[in-house]
Design a protein that fits this description.
The complex is a heterodimer of chains A (167) and B (100).
Chain A: H1 5-26, H2 30-50, H3 55-80, H4 84-87, H5 95-113, E1 120-121, H6 130-139, H7 142-162
Chain B: E1 2-3, H1 4-24, H2 28-53, H3 57-87
Classes of the chains: A mainly alpha (167), B mainly alpha (100).
């Protein structure tokens, strides 16, 4: 069995993403959990950039996810200024059961997927540029684009209205 | 050459981790972050398929998902701020007024 360089890159990045995802779920303190999610999103951007030929999505991931959403999360977490007692959770007795259920669901999905998805990624081939992507968005998906802009506007208005002093 | 099935299985693992986090953690910030993790797993699958099939539809969908995630985070965190102001807690077990 030949191991080529792209496999090594994939498994390295996948291991990092997996570790940081586990960190998000299992770290107790919300700030460290948020920092772990930040690492997860950045390494995912590297995965898009290096293996999947999607440079624009990688940049959007860094700018929007890591730059805007995660800063927003950290800002609100630090704004709350929780004391130690407030983020301490009592242990859930059925957590093990839940984990087993999730693992069973995962195994079921793998069972369904076995034999499907025959494609291969060829990382060296170079991906699509911004031009092709924007051509797609602004011709075929122009309606969805406009609707999503309305959605994000309404979400911003809703956030301001919800966070007002007098609700 | 990476088989597409590796990417799909990897994204399923991340999605399952996010689901366990969203269901088992009680801190509302970590629940929201687990939801972001699940959205990110879907993005990985979409972009992997898009790259393997050689078309761009998956990437367009991924951009829309990122936008929706931004809106979801904004509204979710605003709800958390309002809840904390009224109930002084971030534990989702304590927020059960509409449960029964």
């Amino acid at each position: 069995m030949m191991i080529n360089a792209w496999d090594v890159v994939f498994f390295f990045l996948a291991g990092l993403i997996l570790l940081s995802a586990l960190g998000v779920v299992f770290i107790r303190h919300p700030v460290y959990s948020a920092l772990s999610l930040l690492a997860n999103l950045c390494v995912t951007a590297i995965l898009y950039l290096s293996l999947m030929g999607a440079p624009f999505i990688a940049m959007v991931q860094i700018i929007v996810y890591a730059g805007a959403i995660m800063v927003f999360f950290l800002f609100v977490i630090m704004l709350m200024n929780l004391s130690k007692g407030e983020y301490q959770e009592r242990a859930v007795p059925w957590r093990l059961l839940l984990g087993l259920g999730a693992a069973a669901l995962f195994a079921f999905q793998i069972f369904i997927l076995a034999g499907e998805w025959r494609g291969v990624l060829s990382p060296g081939a170079g991906g699509f540029g911004v031009k092709a992507l924007s051509h797609f968005i602004f011709t075929r998906y122009i309606l969805a684009f406009e609707l999503v802009s309305v959605l994000i506007f309404v979400a911003a208005l809703g956030a301001v209205a919800l966070a007002k002093k007098k609700l | 050459m990476i088989p597409l099935s590796h990417i799909i299985i990897f994204s399923l693992i991340i999605f399952t981790i996010g689901m366990v986090g969203a269901l088992s953690r009680r801190n509302v910030f970590i629940v929201l972050m687990s939801i972001e993790l699940m959205l990110n797993a879907v993005n990985i699958a979409l972009i992997g398929v898009s790259s393997a099939m050689g078309n761009l539809i998956g990437q367009v969908l991924a951009i829309f998902i990122i936008t929706v995630a931004a809106g979801e985070a904004a509204v979710g965190l605003a709800i958390v701020v309002a809840l904390y102001r009224n109930r002084l807690t971030v534990n989702v077990d304590a927020i059960n007024l509409l449960k029964w």
